[in-house]
Write a structure and sequence with these properties.
With 303 residues, this protein is an alpha/beta fold. It has helices at residues 22-28, 60-66, 91-94, 96-99, 112-117, 124-128, 205-212, 228-231, 253-258, 282-289, and strands at 2-7, 41-45, 51-54, 81-85, 106-110, 135-139, 146-148, 151-160, 181-187, 193-197, 216-220, 264-268, 292-294, 300-302. The strands form 2 sheets. It has a 7-stranded mixed sheet with strand order 6-5-4-3-2-1-14. A 7-stranded mixed sheet has the order 7-8-9-10-11-12-13. Bound molecules: zinc ion (2 copies).
Length: 303
């Protein structure tokens, strides 16, 4: 299985267009050693030609341009995107669908909850019907694995994860299973197993067991500290409130990953305030010590 990191940042990207936090300002004035990053999206393939896009970020156009294999050019109008899986209905994971309108219809896989949000509060499914039929919905059942015709050797298993629905969701203050999922993706030929959860608020025993059975963990790297937004003076919400488990501190992601010595561990969906973006930071050095990698745009993983 080929795993291509198209975008490794959280919503807003890095640097964020209107942000002057230490990271964003330091990147702009050249005093910070760091790589720019686009918003969260990965692509998966079993043959390197046909791809399943996981999340469609607002940066999708630039992401496709940066990764030639997704534009195979077999016909006058063509794409390597065979299907799209949405992990939730957040803006930074779904707005890219608007930019893919020229290639409709698209096969879109998402849960009932995500489909509801995207048919009501943020009605992408309705709007896009005007473009050659728009988006064909394939329902993700929470208790069932599924396969996708475009990549027949990959098996996808959804994992409902606890998180709040977006502000425009009709059930914003009433969380449901399926508002946010993680995925286990297994290559049926190589046996390679990926655990992908860009929004991961809590890891309990059963989830830890699932993670232990995977070869590579591509997990929530949004924040270093739970109160990072306050610390950096750019917001008041905690990571926990946004459904993201911070890396640092008791019970944090680094402690969780400590229990998983055999897996390749990669943080993704990194917020622009996170000190791990600074390649010279002590936080980054701590990740190196712990054998935890930081995803970057253009990173390729083979499983
Ligand atoms: Zn996000
Ligand atoms: Zn910033």
């Amino acid at each position: 299985m080929f795993v291509q990191i198209l975008g490794s940042a959280a919503g807003g990207g890095f640097p964020q267009w209107n942000c002057n936090c230490a990271n964003c300002a330091g990147f702009r004035d050249g005093s910070l050693r760091a790589q720019a990053r686009t918003q969260s999206s990965i692509a998966l393939s079993d043959d390197g030609v046909n791809w399943v896009l996981c999340n469609a970020s607002p940066d999708i156009r630039a992401q496709l341009q940066a990764f030639a294999p997704m534009q195979p050019g077999r016909a006058l109008r063509d794409t390597g995107i065979g299907a799209i899986i949405l992990m939730d209905s957040q803006i930074d994971h779904t707005t890219g669908l608007l930019s893919l309108r020229e290639g409709c219809p698209h096969q879109v896989w998402c849960t009932d909850m995500v489909h509801e949000d995207l048919s009501t509060g943020f009605p992408l499914f309705n709007m896009l019907t005007h473009w050659n039929g728009g988006l064909s919905w394939n329902r993700i059942e929470l208790d069932q694995s599924f396969t996708i015709a475009a990549c027949p050797n990959l098996r996808f298993t959804p994992l409902p994860l606890r998180s709040a629905a977006p502000p425009y969701s009709p059930h914003r203050f009433d969380p449901h299973p399926g508002d946010n999922i993680g995925l286990i993706v297994e290559d049926l030929r190589t046996g390679g197993k990926l655990f992908y959860a860009p929004g991961l608020g809590k890891v309990d025993e059963s989830l830890l067991e699932i993670m232990a059975g995977s070869d590579c963990l591509l997990v929530d790297g949004t924040m270093w500290d739970d109160d990072e937004m306050q610390r950096r003076g750019v917001g008041t919400r905690t990571g926990r409130e946004m459904g993201h488990l911070a890396q640092n501190g008791p019970g944090g992601m680094l402690e969780v990953l400590e229990h998983l010595p055999k897996q390749r561990k990669v943080l993704i969906h990194i917020n622009n305030t996170n000190p791990i973006l600074d390649e010279d930071s002590s936080e980054r050095a701590e990740l190196v010590r712990r054998n935890v990698e930081v995803a970057y745009d253009g990173m390729s993983i083979e499983l």
